[in-house]
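User: Fold both of these, please.

Assistant: Here is the first one.
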Amino acid sequence: MDDYINSSLFAFYKVGPGPSSSHTIGPMLAGGLFLQRAGQQTFAVPPAALEVRLCGSLAATGVGHGTHRAVAGGLLQMEPTTCDTQRLNTLLNTDETYQADFGAFKVDFNRRSILFDKQAPCPKFQNTMIFRLLDAAGRTVFEMTVYSIGGGSLAVEGEEEQPQAEIMVPYRYRNMNGLLRLTGKYQLTIPQLMMENERAVSGLSEEEVHFRLDELVNRMDEAVSRGIVTEGILPGPIGLNRKAPLFYRSSLKLEQPHDRFLAQLNAWAMAVAEENAAGNRVVTAPTLGSAGVLPAVIRMLREFYDKDHTALRNGLLTAAAIGMIARRNASISGAEVGCQGEIGVASAMAAAMIAGAHAASPQIVERAAEIALEHHLGLTCDPVCGYVQIPCIERNAVGAVTAYNAYILASVGNPLYHKVSFDEVVAAMLETGRKMSPELKETSRGGLAICSLCE
């Protein structure tokens, strides 16, 4: 089967608890998947215990990301979109015993059941989870290895390379070049093409897709609204104060309109990034670590450009096309390619969203996305203390401003002077990520993570 892009928008834009889609949404879904798969097995004697090993980046930064709690939440049948984030953040804080219900049997577990294995090799993916059921003698009776591959998506060992059931979409493309060729051949905008493919993949009507897109916009906007009024110190050892409320209040006092515009764009991006860092529910765009960029641009389009629901839907559809191309041809996981795959791709998506909301041509969309991603190449993922706070929160703000500037550069420049394609930059991102030191890819063993004191 051809490996063209046939994912649903709503498998790409996910709602879940922060601070990291690969470290919280993915592991929570993995816990639930293990519960389901193990419950389908037949055992002569019910298993007596369970063990989960978190490896690679999940071991290196899993404590700061709350990965162990996310796994426990999945084993307790929590779902990312509906879980009680306050309860989630209390799991495994004590020696309390929990019970995983596999249907035909139940198994007790506690915080010692989930191990951070920093020595385990991760030859396939940096975010690796090994789930085991054990008998009374401690022998493994069922095992499943799951990879969290970015944006809350999973792959299961032994299944990740199996062909998926073919989904026939009307417009097949693998990269930006293919997408542009289709829009030109059939005289379509990118939002029109994405809508037709979404209807084929999901079986939803156009009205139903619109409703769900509006829900995503509302979720993102709600996170902005919460973040610009919530004061306090973020969880973890850094003791970082939330800054977005002060930034926003200060922005309203600025006399110059252009200063006020940029200050508010920064504040809105930081507001969502701080909500994410606090473990509250936000939307992957394309990940949770980069979840502030797109909502900031949405608020900007509403308040400064008076864009309506139709324009914002078109923007989200356009942004998804960019994100899906980056994911398919490179990665959106910080553990795989560094922060260029998170903030870099988010900025490219946001630049494309601005263009899409302004009904720009597919060529301007492509240029805007290319410019934004190009200037994030080489960006490392080096969170201080393993928490998605420094430099992650401010990077969301910088990514939002870069997205706006990329759109301006693309829309007012001469297209004949544009030499580098989006596909070329995505290829460069993948190559750069492969050559990047493992210490600079979400392990907190290099870069700013070791050059900044955290006590």
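And the second sequence with its predicted structure:
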Amino acid sequence: MHVSGLRQRFTSVILLTISSASLWLILGAIPALIFYSFSLLLLSLHHLRYLAALDEWLQTSAPATSTLPNTTGAWGDVFTRLTRLMRSQSQSQQQLSTALERLRRATSAMPEGVVILDESDRIEWCNPVAEQHFGLDFNRDTGQQITYLVRQTQFAEYLATRNYSEPLIVRQSRQQELILSLQLIPYGDKQKLLISRDITLLERVETMRRDFVANVSHELRTPLTVIGGFLETLSEEDQTGSKIGKRALTLMTDQTLRMQRLVEDLLALSRLENAQNQVREGNVNIVEMLRELYHEAQSLSAGRHHINLKLDTDAQLRGSADELHSAFSNLVSNAIRYTPGGGEILLNWRIEGGQGLFLVQDSGIGIESEHLPRLTERFYRVDRSRSRETGGTGLGLAIVKHILSRHQAHLEIVSEPRNGSRFIARFPENRLIIAQDNPMPKQP
């Protein structure tokens, strides 16, 4: 069809040229040129007519379905091919529109809110759930900056930092009872999906759990103190002469002390989880703190381990001295508990990559890789019998994780069975306080 159309287009021009050449030979040059020019004018008018018909046809609202102009020859082939092409394009567009509509209906039915943001964080689309969560109106707010409508300082900072690995928990200002979990997901050409989930009920349950644990722990503290005091008195007076009685007193005293430690850890964890309990920040002298911890570790080890303290910087930290002491103490005591006698333990404070780094390294029994992601969970134990022997409560690393999180730091754990463990607390650069002269601190 394409080759035939080309032949039809040039046949008339070839015949016209041959006819004009024949007239040239018979009548001379002038009549031949007049005939040739007049014929070309008629041919041009013929094409202009169909070009106008093509333009009029293309300007219709639906050229693919409208009536074709009455044409023959090459122009008929052109109109036929254009019609087929536009029908195919119309079908593809209809299929895309149908798929997009199905996707929008499916997204609208999701229990989560979904907002599509462009590269400038302007709203391109949102589903009805997102309209409820953020107080948006899709028809009114399309093209608006999301930060103009979601007026949350935390959200603006979350959007600006471009670190979307963890969701952001916010309390919606328009609805004080609504608590949302927000997650930004980059995709496509610098676009983002903003996913919002209503976690109000979950937060209420979590609050009830925290309150219950805190209240029960608080109520247990007094009776345990009384029991412990009487057991200590009985043990000192040694009123039972039998070995069984002495053994029973010893076991009761040990278990009471263990329960007291558990209650204290539960109360400490409850305080850390309380959002209203803000960090009381100050300048923390880490060098002096680690020297104290070093001497405490020597006392706890009772000479069974080789403990070294390496101070590579005298940089201080901005934070809570009590909380940081608790976190570091937990890491050090764990290393002593789970390292056999004769093992080595290293405490190190240094700056690495612009971050403050506190390291506790031991030559202990190590941990299997499948346990590492869950070590900071409450009451998670790698070996329950071993934990009972060492007197751990199962809350130490959970407390460490919460304290570091409150200081924008994070905990890294590297360990292999029989090759020891490394616990690394990394603090961001904005938490460091570095002296101008930065003299190297004296080793203990």
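The longest helix spans residues 200-237.
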